[in-house]
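Each record in this resource describes a single protein on a pair of labelled lines. An example record follows, reproduced without changes.
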Amino acid sequence: MAGVISGGVRYVNRSAIREPHSEGTAAWGIHLALAAITVVLLVAIRLRRRRRDDRGLLLLAPVGAQAGRRLHHTLCSSPVRTVVAAPAIGLLLYTEYRAGLQVLGGLDPNFTVNAWGGASYAGAMICHYLDLALMAAASGWQLHRILVPASPRQQR
């Protein structure tokens, strides 16, 4: 919610003067490669989970109730793991903030003029949201490896 509010403030206070587009700022090639790698990874994860008969919803894994219990258990029992987990938690929180910021901030043409997806709202959202999804997934994976299991059953 803070990101959406920040994006709204940025949009309301936008400049009436258009910034010039700088050639070479779009990163479509990199993002197409990232998208292809993401598809391959998602298919591999899906196949691996199917073999293990894991029916949990993958997208909710880093933010579900189980993750909350693990975070609480880690905070209460392992200060070292808490410190090690802090950067991943910070990055996960930042991705949420940044995604919200872009929803309304991206409506300002100066916000997207030199965006990785080109000088359009749609292009900026596609590339930035792909980046944010990958950063959130990496943070979730790191937290899964760092946080103390909430129960002995989780220690697979």
Summary: The mean pLDDT is 83. The radius of gyration is 19 Å. Residues 61-154 form one domain. Helices lie at 2-12, 28-51, 65-77, 79-105, 109-112, 121-146.
